[in-house]
Amino acid sequence: MSSTAKEDVGSDALLRLRNVSKWFGEKQALAGVDLDVRPGEVHVVCGENGAGKSTLMNIIGGVLQPDEGEVIFDNRPARFADPLAASRAGVGMVHQHFRLLPSLTVAENLYLNRQPRRFGLFADRAAMRRGAATLIARYGFDLGPDAVVGDLSVGQRQRVEILKALGFEARLLILDEPTAVLTPGEVAQLLDVVRELRSKGRAILFITHKLTEALDVSDRVTVLRQGRRISTQATHLLSERSIAIDMVGREMRPLKREGGPRAEAKTPAPTLSASDIVATDSEGRPLLGGVSFAIFPGEILGVAGVDGNGQTELSEAAAGLRRIQGGAIHMAARDVTRLDVRARRSLGLGFIPEDRLDRGVSAGMTIAENVSVGAYRRRRLVNAAGLVRVAARDAYAAEKIREFDVRGATPRTPIGALSGGNIQKVVIARELDQRPVALVVAQPTRGLDVGATEFVHRQISAAAERGCGVLLISSELSEIFALSDRIAVMFRGRLVGAVDRASATEESIGLMMGGGARAP
Amino acid sequence: MKLLVLPPHFRTAATLLGPPVAVLAGGFALVLAISSDPILAYQDLLFANFYSAGSFALFINRMTPLLFLGLSVILSFRAGMFNVGGEGQLYLGAMAATIAGLASAGAPRPLGLLLAAGAGAATGAVYALAPALLKVRLGVNEVVSTLMLNFIALLLTQYLVTHPLRDPVAYGAVSWMLPASVWLPEIPGLLGATSAALIALAVAPLAWMLLFRTLWGADLRAAGSNPRFAEAVGIDASRRVLEAMALSGGIAGLAGALYVLGVGHRFEQNFSPGFGLIGLTVALLARLHPFGAVATAAFYALVLNGAAYMQIDTDVPRSLVGLLTGFLVLFMTARGRGAPAPS
Model ipTM? Predict the structure, then answer.
């Protein structure tokens, strides 16, 4: 399968994997993977979801053990029984989801599990503070040892994680999709940190599926596909296109939306609009502080922003799942502020929630049952007596499975057995079947691979083509720019901007995401 | 790493039948070790229910409330409500049927019976609706509330049967005998076997149909398996939960009513040997499937009654059954690491 000849790295590699395989039950997650990482190298591992990236990193980090093959670290065969053993040997790992205790200080988090002791009993807080300050100073991070982690920004928390992973002696640092949660500005800072670590001779394994980052920061790129290593090449020989082809196994056709509400579709009433909506949490703290927008038929309004600035609440308020304390929501000319989910859906509102398994599907039920919810009467899947016509329901599900290219699925498959991308296809199939006039879409491609992302984008775009007004909430700037006609930014519960895509740049939107500037 | 690949229906059969067979075999090894007459002990345990028509009737009477309560649990659990108040709903249903039966002494034959059975079911339903309302409106944990309501029901019926309703000439704390006009007839040709069994056997497919073949059931299971999903797709989850709990309590209440009307013919204090608790196991072992509950209720009735004969005939104590059923629950609920959880 390998498209490149096995490189002769010799003994200068810090980490060598030879023929590593891993099974989960009957499913092979990794098939004979080789990988070399040298000191002072940033090595990016790319791949679609399910390609085996995380499995591979977990094996190196001691979370999982390989079923076959060997891991050689520092010229010695290594078999890390657990992450602690790996970290003692000098392998530090920064997980995608932070593993910090928000109520403790930076110093306490850094020394979690390895506190210096006084008389072997009490935590030596002074030594901890000194050590933490030394560590922070060594890498020049903007952190204070006494700051409480819960008060830090996401980017700062990540730097605490990195310090924790580095400790004082880690020689190999694994970063698992570190940029997923960061603003563009924070991404740039992170990449600077990575370069700095490289110059200090650390080896860095960087997992990402964002191709620009891969090219930007790395010395070499390894692509995994379906558990196999497809290629390992020096970065200067690569382009985004060549990596994408290796990842997907075929040529990609990036979506170009001509977009814009067509002139004839521009009616006086927006298909979905909000005026000055206010929402607070149970303690009265503001979540949405007067958000207004108007979406016309055939238009996609992109809402960018770093997670946690009110996007979840905005999508729930629009869908009818969250009571608002002020303002109004209209569909066409109709005030739907007081209408529940069911009533709004019957007026033609579709909702693709940000967390598929939370609100999108019932994981224990079958694909047929999940895709048919809400379609039983419309599609005549029940007879006059109210009994489900099972054959008709399964046929309907089979039709949707074909139409939306849901892989590895039959109508009776429990939906929880599918991958994230395929679950998302079922959700979209269900929500688009009623031909919605307005669609609320939140983080539609989170965790999805390149191929599934492309498919989802086409579906959203096609819905807009049919005249549906779309509220697209995403923290993925490339997605916002690929699909939106106008772009706004959520920042601290407020919606900033709404500028035409043509006049927006990633830099200007990125600045707004960080709260740095108002709309031009 | 590669698992032995079996045809799917064979694997299903193996996962369903494997644990009971393994437990019975393991139990036999145990009996072999402690008993001087292991063959007779096991023979009694498994087959004594079929030695005579009389013992078969007792088996039927034991199975009936177990099946009702298993179905009751299935309906509530499928709606995501962990109704552990079956015992209380059963007792109140029995008490309501007793009072209604005593009150309709002069009523024409089927009317009094229907009235008493209906009173039992309705009382059970109302008694289960209370914790459901608390859950839906105020978020009160239903495990705690249904469990606590059991004590209220038990003590209330205990008071009623020891004071106002007590038959002073009878031995023990029992109510007045119900007029024969409200008795539920026996199964024709099977002396002593309550025809409530036939009703229970009819409720099982009805429950299956309701859960798996109606829109209502689909909504109910969606609300039960993922309420936030149900909310997002516009299912009125609260309403489904209330309806399911009313049905669940109604079936448990009916079980109590039919026990009084068909078997006891009066309210007896402590008439239930923990039917409510065993009903939970019946439902869980059946993987919350109504047809499975028929099998597991029959299995429980078989070994519970068989153990009594075993204890009389041999030196093996009936507590063996507790051990066996405990292991059965363990085996049925344990699964290999990494295997998917049951849906």
Answer: 0.81
d(CA A327, CA A493): 14
A341: nearest CA partner in chain B:
B234
DSSP code of residue A149 = G
- % of chain B beyond a pLDDT of 70: 93
Mutate to test the interface with B, among A321, A322, A344, A362 (most CBs of B within 10 A): A362
CB contact under 8 A, A369 and B233: no
- Tell whether B4 lies on the interface with A, counting CB pairs under 8 A: no
Q: What is the residue range of B158's domain?
A: 63-286
Radius of gyration of chain A (CA): 25
Q: Least CA distance to A391: which residue of chain B?
A: B213
User: Across the interface, which of B236, B338, B343 has its CB nearest the CB of A364?
Assistant: B343
3-state secondary structure of B239: helix
For tokens 């669609």, name the residue.
A439
Cα distances from B19 to residues A20, B23, B325, in angstroms, run 37, 6, 11
Query: What domains can be seen in chain A, in order of their start residue?
Result: 1-90+170-251 (3.40.50.300), 99-168 (no CATH), 253-348+435-520 (3.40.50.300), 361-434 (no CATH)
CB contact under 8 A, B343 and A414: yes
Q: How far apart are CA A201 and CA B31, in angstroms?
A: 69
Closest CB to B221 among A345, A359, A365: A365
* Of the candidate ranges A19-28, A399-408, B47-56, B192-201, the one whose mean pLDDT is the lowest: A19-28
CA proximity to A293, closest of A470, A501, A495:
A495
Query: Which residues does chain B have within 8 Å of residue A394's beta carbon, measured at their own beta carbons?
Result: none
Compute the distance between CA of residue B312 and CA of residue B37 in angstroms, rounded to an integer.
12
Rounded Cα gap, residues B95 and B165, in angstroms: 10
Give the Cα separation of A77 and A428 in Å (integer).
Answer: 47
The string of pLDDT tens digits covering residues A376-421 is 888 889 888 889 999 999 999 999 999 988 887 889 989 988 878 8
The answer to the question of residue B173 being in a domain is yes
At B236, phi and psi to the nearest 5? -80, 85
Residues near A130 by beta carbon (within 8 Å), at least 6 away in sequence = none
3-state secondary structure B282-336: HHHHCCCCHHHHHHHHHHHHHHHHHHHHHHHHCCCCCCHHHHHHHHHHHHHHCCC
Interface contacts A/B by beta carbons within 8 Å: 86
Answer whether A247's CB lies under 8 Å from A47's CB: yes
The answer to whether residue B333 sits within a structural domain is no
User: DSSP string covering B258-275, please?
Assistant: HHIIIIISS-BTT--SSH
Tokens of B113: 């019976």
Which residues 6+ apart lie within 8 Å of A67 measured at CB?
A21, A22, A23, B1
Interface contact B236, partner A, CB < 8 A: yes
Q: Please report whether residue B194 resides in a domain.
A: yes
The answer to whether the CB atoms of A361 and B3 lie below 8 A apart is no
Span B223-269, pLDDT tens digits: 999 999 999 999 998 999 999 999 999 999 999 999 999 999 999 99
B313 interface with A at CB cutoff 8 Å: no
Q: Choose, out of A344, A359, A377, the residue to mutate when testing the contact with B (most B CBs < 10 Å).
A: A359
B216 within domain boundaries: yes
CB neighbours (10 Å) of residue A111? 24
Contacts of B288 in chain A (CB under 8 A): none
Total domains in chain B come to: 1
Nearest-CA distance B250 → chain A (Å): 22
Contacts of B340 (CB under 8 A, 6+ apart): A414, A416, A417
Chain B CB contacts of A345 under 8 Å are: 233-234
Q: Is B222 close to A372, i.e. CB distance below 8 A? A: no
